[in-house]
Amino acid sequence: MLDRLADFLGNHTRLLLATHENPDGDGVGAAIALAAHLKTQGKAARIVVTPGLPENLRFLDPEGWVEAYAPAGAHQDLAAWPDAWLLIDASEPRRMGPLHGAFQATGARRACLDHHLKDGPQGFDEEFRDPTASASAQLVYDLLRPRLGGSLPPVVVQALYAGIVSDTGNFRHSNSTAAIHQAAADLITQGAQSARTYNALYQTATPAKLRLFGEAIRGLQLREEGRFAYVAVSRADLAACGATPEDLDDLVEEPRRLQGVEVAALFSETPDGRAKVSLRSRERVDVNAVCRLFGGGGHRLASGAKVDLPLAEFIAQVEAAVVDRMRQDLA
Ligand SMILES: [Mn+2]
Predict the structure, then answer these.
(1) What separation in Å is there between the alpha carbon of 111 and the centre of ligand 1?
(2) Distance 135 CA to ligand 1 centre (A)
(3) Around ion ligand 1, which residues have CB less than 5 A away?
(4) Which of 328, 330, 322, 324 has its CA nearest to residue 229?
(5) Buried b (16+ CB within 10 A) or exposed e, 251-266
(6) CA–CA separation, 128 and 24 (whole Å)
(7) Distance between CA 301 and CA 286 in Å, rounded?
(8) 115: phi then psi, degrees, rounded to nearest 5
(9) CA–CA dist 25, 56 (Å, integer)
C-alpha cells in the first residue's frame, strides 16, 4: 500500500492536502509532514483546512503552510490548482465539510490516506487505507522513514510525533500498540519533545472551558447501573459559559473516567442547530455500530454522528441504541 502511495505522490506535481473538517493533531501532523517531504522533492504542496488551524496546533506549522479555506476569497479557484487531491485522516469526501464542493469540482486525481474503518469509500480514484494503523501520522511515518534513510527533518519529527500523541490520547487508548510506541521512541530519539508536545496540545484550557466542563459534569446522566454515562451541552450552555464549540474537545473523557463505565457519550448542539454525539467504549461495546445507525462512524471504540434532530430527541434515540448494543456486546 505504501509503495502505491509513493508512486501516487511521485506521479503528481501540484498536490493539495486536505483533512476532515475541524482538523485534529493527527490530520494536521500527517499533512505537514507529508508536505515537508513533497516540497523537498521539488513539488508544490499546499495544505487547506476548514474552518482553520486550531490554536493548539499552530506550533506544528512554523512556516505557515496551512491555509484556512476561504471559498469567497483566496480559494475561489482552488479546484483548478492541484493535479492530485489527497484527503488525509478520513475516507468520506463529505467529512471535508465546506471543501467538499471544490473536491467535487476538481479535475485532479482524488485519493484518501486513512486509518479509519470504513467499508467501500466512494468518490476516490485511489485509496490508501490501513485500519490497523493507530494514526494517519503512523502511515506517513512508515512511508517516509525508509525512504529518507531513517533520518527525518525536525518539522517532520515534530508533526508526526504530535499526530501520534493526538490519536493515541497520549498513549492511553487501545491503539497504543508496540509499533506506535516504537515509532514514537524513534521520533523522540530524533528530537521530538514529549512534555513540550503534551503541554502545547493539551494544557491550553481557558476559564470558559473549565466552567463549561463544570456545568456539563453537574448534569451527568447514568444509565444501565452506571455502565453508560453521558453529558450533554446545548448552544445555550455554551453561550452561558462564554465557551465555543472547540471547548467541547475532550469533554467526553470526563464521563469515561467513571469506574464501571463501559460507554461514555458527549451530546452537543452544533452552531447550525444540529445534534451531535461522540461515543467512547472502554473495550467491549461496539460504538461504531451505534453511530452507523445514525449515518456516522469512526472506530469500534471511538465514533461519532451528527443528525438534523432536536438535541433531546437525538439523546433519547442514541440512548436506546446504546442500551440495545450493550445488551448484545456485554451479554
Ligand atoms: Mn487519525
Answers:
(1) 16
(2) 5
(3) 26, 89, 135-136, 167
(4) 322
(5) bbebbbeeeebbbbbb
(6) 19
(7) 6
(8) -120, 10
(9) 9
Distance between CA atoms of 156 and 35, rounded to whole angstroms? 9
Determine the distance separating the centroid of ligand 1 and the alpha carbon of 225, expressed in angstroms: 32
Domains and CATH numbers, the chain: 2-202 (3.90.1640.10), 207-329 (3.10.310.30)
Residues in the chain: 331
- 171 phi-psi bin (left φ>0, alpha ψ -120 to 50, beta other): left
- pTM of model > 0.85: no
From the CA of 161, how far away is ligand 1's center (Å)? 13
Tell me the three cell numbers of residue 232: 450533554
Query: How far, in Å, is the centroid of ligand 1 from the Cα of 240?
Result: 32
Q: How far is CA 264 from CA 47, 202, 252, 284, in A?
A: 33, 20, 7, 12
The burial class, CB within 10 Å (0-12 / 13-18 / 19+), for 312 is exposed
Nearby residues of 94 by Cβ (< 8 Å), 6 or more positions away: 100
Residue 218 CA to ligand 1 centre (angstroms): 31
C-alpha 53/C-alpha 284 separation (Å) is: 34
Q: Along the 331 residues of the chain, how does pLDDT read in single tens digits? A: 999 999 999 999 999 999 999 999 999 999 999 999 999 999 999 999 999 999 999 999 999 999 999 999 999 999 999 999 999 999 999 999 999 999 999 999 999 999 987 667 789 999 999 999 999 999 999 999 999 999 999 999 999 999 999 999 999 988 999 999 999 999 999 999 999 999 999 998 999 999 999 999 999 999 999 999 999 999 999 999 999 998 998 899 999 999 999 999 999 999 999 999 999 999 999 999 999 999 998 889 999 999 999 999 999 999 999 999 999 999 8
